[in-house]
Amino acid sequence: MNTKKTLKAYLKAQRDELTDSIIYERMSKVAKDAQNGKAFHMISEEEKHHAEIWEKYTGREVKADKWKIFIYFSLIRFFGITFGIKLLERTEHDGVKTYRSLPDDFEEADELVLSETKHENELIGMLNDKSLDYLGSIVLGLNDALVELLGALAGLTLGLKNSKVIASVGIITGISAALSMAASEYLSTKTDSNSKVNPMTASIYTGFAYVVTVVLLILPYLLVSDIYVSLLLMIAIAVLIIAFFNFYISVVKTMPFRKRFLEMVSISLGVAFISFFIGLIVNKVFNIDV
After folding, report:
1. CATH topology of domain 4-128
2. Residues with Cβ < 8 Å from 152, sequence gap 6 or more?
3. Which residue in 82, 211, 99, 103 sits closest to 149, CA to CA?
4. d(Cα 154, Cα 150) in Å, to the nearest integer?
5. What is the pLDDT of residues 114-133, one digit of tens each?
6. Could you give the residue range(s) of every CATH 1.20.1260 domain in the chain?
7. CA–CA dist 216, 211 (Å, integer)
8. The pTM is what?
9. What pLDDT shows up at residue 99?
C-alpha cells in the first residue's frame, strides 16, 4: 500500500462491497420471483468475494455500513424492488469506473471489472415489475391534483381569506375531482384494447394518488390560521412532491431529473400564480368577506 489516500480508497471499496453483499442477500429473500431471488443470492456471494479481494490488499477487516443497508432496504420495502435495483445499478456502474482506474499491480482488476459489468446486465434483465405498468395512472392522478388543486387553493386563498373555509372547499373539490379522475381512468383504460393494465386497479392508483396529493396540499390550511403562510407552505409541499416523484421516475425509468422537474414546477406554479390573481379579482368584484 503506497499512500494513506490509497489505503483509505481501498478500505472504502472493501466496505462498499461487503455492504452491497448484505443488501443483495436481503433482496434475495424478499424477491417474489424465484429466479430473481437466486440471482440476487449469487450476486451477494460475488460481492462478498470482492470484499475479500480488497481485504487482501488492505490487510484489515471492515464492518458493513449498517446505515446504508437500512436506507436501501427501507427504500426497497416502500418503493418496490425495481427502485432498489436501479439504485444499486448506479452503484455497480460507478464500481466499474473505479476498477478500470486501478493500478497495473492490482492483479484482480480485470476480474472485478468483468464481474461488476455482469452484475449491471443481470440487474437490468431483472426489471420486470408489474406495478410499474400503473405508473402512468399514478402520474395522471398526481399531475392533475397538483395543477388543479394548487391553482384552486391559490385562488381561494385571496377569494375567501379564511383558512378553514378554504380547507373545506378544497377537500370537497379535491375528493370530487379524485372520484371523477378515477372514473375517467377506468373508462379510458377499459376502452383501450391495447392496454395491458387492469381498469379497476388503474383507477384505484389514479384516485389514490389524487387523494394523497389533495390531503398534503390542504394540510397547511388545517394547521395554520394565517392564509399567506398556509399558501407558502402549500407551494413548498407541492415543490417537494414534484421533486420526490420526478426523482422516483428518473431512477426507475432512467430519465433526466432536472428537465422534468423544472417543467412540472413551472406548469404547477404558473397555474397557481394565475389563479391567485383571479381570486384577488373575484374578491374585489364580489366583495367577499368570510
Report:
1. Ferritin (1.20.1260)
2. 170, 173, 275
3. 211
4. 6
5. 666 665 566 655 555 555 66
6. 4-128
7. 9
8. 0.68
9. 59
